[in-house]
Amino acid sequence: MPDRPKLIVMLTYNDKTVANAAEIFEQCKSSQADYWGFKEEALPFPEMKALFQEIKRCGKTAVLEVVAYTEEKCLEGAQMAVDCGCDMLMGTVFYDSVNVLCHKHHIQYLPFVGTVSGRPSVLEGSIDEMIAEANEYIAKGASGIDLLAYRYTGDCAELIRRFIQEVHAPVCIAGSVNSTRCLDEIKRSSPWAFTVGSAFFQNDFGKGFSEQINRVCDYMKEPAYV
Description:
The protein has 9 helices and 12 strands. It has helices at 21-28, 45-57, 71-84, 96-104, 127-139, 156-166, 180-189, 198-201, 209-221; strands spanning 6-10, 12-13, 16-17, 35-39, 61-66, 88-91, 108-110, 115-117, 122-124, 145-147, 171-173, 193-196.
């Protein structure tokens, strides 16, 4: 039986890191979540680095998700991940230069696929093309894929179902996971992981940040509805 999808808590709202990210982590570090991350904007770099160090000191996995599209900006984000000692870089358009940098510093790299634009980001493109793109990146050495499934302009459920079936590498479902309907679809498809960020700040899963994290973790332990 496959492992349950892992929750990556993103200390972000509308694709930007919240100003009190460190305070929230301190309040919630004893929750069930083992993976914690945020975006490359808009926390000052010294605060970002200090928070990542605290995340790792607490035995958690540190994730940086970069919403960038040009090679220059994607490389800047990857260098942030290096300088902060991150375990994992998610996002960016795939560039060989970013892939090489991540391999050099032993950082797991999960790039976007499809046509991604804006902030908060939107995903466009055909499912067939995204699957082919993902398999190309995996063949080049990417660790997995950051799939913005719930930002997709097409059929989200169909994208998730086919993507998990046809891409044989870790897939993280990201972007606007904000309901038990989304969680049910994720349970059924059983990706490697999924992110929740803004939904926790909007109290979409109840009240209290730590309480919501544990509620989502507990919900994912329940059997999936067929």
